[in-house]
Amino acid sequence: MRYSQMLLPTLKETPADAEVISHRLMLRAGFIRKLTAGIYSYLPYGLAALRRVETIVREEMNRAGAQELLLPMVQPADLWIETGRYEKYGPELLRFKDRHDRESCLGPTHEEVITDLVRRELHSYRDLPVNLYQIQTKFRDEVRPRFGLMRGREFLMKDGYSFDVSDEQADISYMKMYEAYKRVFSRCGLTFRAVQADSGAIGGNFSHEFMVLAETGEDTIVVCTACEYAANMEKAEVKVVGPASSEAMADLEKIETPGKRKVDAVCDFLGIEAANLVKTMVYLADGQPVTVLVRGDREVEEIKLKNLLKVADVVLAEDKQVFDATGVPTGYLGPVGLTIRLVADQEVVLMRNFVAGANEKNHHLKNVNYERDFQVEVVADLRKISTDDPCPVCGGRLELTEGIEVGHIFKLGTTYSEKMNAVFQDSDGQEKPFVMGTYGIGVSRVVAAAIEQNHDENGIIFPMPLAPYQAIILNLDPKDEKITAAAEGLYTDLVSEGVDVLLDDRDERPGAKFKDADLLGIPFRITVGKKFGQDGIVELRSRKTGESDGMSPDRLKAELLARIADEMVK
Ligand code: ATP
Ligand code: MG
After folding, report:
1. Domain spanning 469-567 has what CATH number?
2. Three-class secondary structure of residue 430 per DSSP
3. pLDDT tens, 425-483?
4. CATH code given to domain 14-237+399-452
5. 405 Cβ inside 6 Å of ligand 1
């Protein structure tokens, strides 16, 4: 492609309303232009990057035995009513009526449509397993569309769905996708982790999120420095440390703690560590009060609590709500004699002789012990993991990092097939619901994540597999016949070798060309300028390392081909 003919409007200024680097660089590098909130046009350069991701995704899905199809974007509400999601999905689902007054929506995902298709077309165990995918524009009316392609309202997604005869077979389909996803993100040249995830509202048996590691990630993930373990912060399992303390139980003692409501204040006053105190926190679980016990220096992980109680929502109760539920002012609550629902973090039941509120204003209890002094409805892992905790798999040191979710795989089970009566006849003659899995990749988000992970102060540094062009040739003096002939010659030769090359033949100053080349992030830059006029030397420079070498055009061709091949991840 010739730069002089391409719609590639680069910007010198940093756009004011772009908060993250990928968004800024995509605007500056003429990738995308905003039409309205969360909705973008892809210009040719941006589309080329998107196509690179698409190609890798398509090849790996096909390799894993999935079949591509294309489903409609406009969907009848009826299908969503069947699964109950027309109500549940909330305002992210854009609803409208057609001219015949039929309720419709724009597809944010396609479980309903694909299940409808499969229940009509597949009837026997002999037809299974089947895995169907598409690469298509999704619409989600996100509350806060932001960060450019990272969280758009309209975005490109690969969504796939597997249908199996049994749970065991569904696990096999799931694992195939797990492996395929690892290949996709490796081939994209990205640093990522597959993490065990909270399966949230969809409620499958298990799920993994694929996270590209980058500072601007919206999710915090816990990774082990010694083994492969990685988990979403909310899901990260805390390993129980040790058996119960062997200390003898001392007598329960009520003490006055005037005005001491906060953990720190109580500890200072009594001269104890927060690890010897238990916090008693009241939450409203779908509106109903539940008390949670955790060690004084720990935090409750609300997602774990929500999952344990199987409710849609948990919120920390306000002082008045605590008082209404318990008759005790906040700060003096404790487990002994409390009459509302009580659950405890696993660590609490191992503690001996701890301090807790006495359920009486200005008083605490000393030497409280589980079982002797109070019982709980359930003991579970309810606290946030921290970097002080050991890896739950190998005991190694944990680190927290930020990640961008680029892919998500869920084992769905029969949730959708049962609701939609999607059944097949099994080999024993029985009718059974399909066992399903659902697998998404945010294709447009992958491009943003790749830029978040690979850039410097001058612009994008594309990993080779995602680069719209593998090399850019700068003709530094289009008016000089000799230089121009060499640049054009290299361009023609490289194109005929199958290299994707951009030829900067614009009538611009060299400085502007160097700046744009850096901004665009094309992996190799070839400069044809004065040195060629003098010594027949052209320059080959790597965007990533900044290293450059002078050489003859012939050597350059050979060297470039070898280095491109080197950098393509197989
Ligand atoms: P998130 O938690 O980021 O909202 P999600 O759980 O809603 O994601 P899924 O429904 O699993 O996402 O969608 C599959 C993939 O689509 C995600 O892993 C992500 O990469 C991408 N994706 C989801 N929402 C958006 C969006 N608004 N803009 C761009 N990509 C998105
Ligand atoms: Mg979402």
Report:
1. 3.40.50.800
2. coil
3. 999 999 999 999 999 999 999 999 999 999 999 999 999 999 999 999 999 999 999 99
4. 3.30.930.10
5. yes
